[in-house]
Amino acid sequence: MSDLMSFTVENGVGILRFTQPERRNPYSIEFVDALVTMLNAAQADDTVRAVVMTGGDYFSSGGDLVGFQTEIAKGARATYNMVDKVHSGGRAAYNFNKPLIAAVNGVAYGAGMSLALSADVIVAAEDARFCEVFSKVGGCPDTGSSWLLQQRIGAGAARLLILTGREISGSTAHQMRVVEECVPADQTEATAIALATEMAANPMFGMESCKRVMREVAECSYEEALEIECRAQTILLGAHDFPEAMRAFSQKRKPEFRDC
Fold first, then answer.
1. Is the per-residue pLDDT at 246 higher than 90?
2. Nearest to residue 59, comparing CAs of 134, 1, 109?
3. What does the pLDDT look like over 41-66, one tens digit per residue?
4. pLDDT tens across 177-189, in order?
5. Structural domains in the chain?
6. In 10 A of CB 37, how many CB atoms?
7. Burial class for 155, CB neighbours closer than 10 Å (0-12, 13-18, 19+)
8. 3-state secondary structure of 9
9. Is 101 in contact with 44 (CB distance < 8 Å)?
10. How many whole angstroms from its chain centre is CA 129?
11. Sign of torsion, CA 255 258 259 260?
12. Which of 84, 104, 172, 244 is most deeply packed, by most CB within 10 A?
């Protein structure tokens, strides 16, 4: 058990709950470690037939910009290893072999949005806030979102969200087909659990096969996308603008970008 998240099972549905909503559940290295551990355990547990990921009032604000600075300061190799480590969280979610539903309230920014996109189905609150924030801080998409978002909404719409760094509501995300279900905020988790319960009632070998077949026929290469992201993000994290954004975040001031 982790102080960053908890896992309970009821009627075959596992509830993976992120438990730091007061901090908006930042996507830290410790968060990734706990996420991978719990998803692996859920995958091995035959009593778990579907999983709902939820962060309560806030799904996830994205990467731990302050915490990442220590690794970035060590140079390109350490930075690359850190990004690859961060990717393991999204990889565990994307490769989870049982139905996985994200219930999104509050914010799903950056890596938090990527994590939601890694699920089979996203249920979002109407007033949830999604943002591919990477371009706003001088970075590029990571944690799989450059690939995952295009899979859901197509290349043009994905470029629009990624290159502008525009925040969209849950309602707009539903209109753009970023998310599959959109409900009032007080119904998000209940709707996700109902969907998971419906899926959990189906034969598990068939469900696992459905997921595997759909992925195999649809994807070009998720791993190739992660590698492309890793190389680009490693360079950007050691450039000027991304480190400047993190310094400004720590110092609570507006960043001074130099486009480099």
1. no
2. 109
3. 999 999 999 999 999 999 999 988 88
4. 999 999 999 999 9
5. 5-185 (3.90.226.10)
6. 15
7. exposed
8. strand
9. no
10. 13
11. negative
12. 104
With residue 121 as reference, give the H or E element that holds it.
strand 121-125
Whole-Å CA distances, 223 to 8, 115, 176, 177, 197? 30, 15, 25, 24, 30
The pLDDT value given to residue 179 = 98
CB atoms within 10 A of CB 17: 19
Burial 88-123 (b: 16+ CB within 10 A, else e): bbbbbbbebebbbbbbbbbbbbbbbbbbbbbbbbbb
Residue given tokens 């954004």 in the structure block: 245
How much is the CA Rg of the chain, to the nearest whole Å? 18
Tokens representing 69 are: 């600075």
Reading the block at residue 47, the tokens are 């009593």
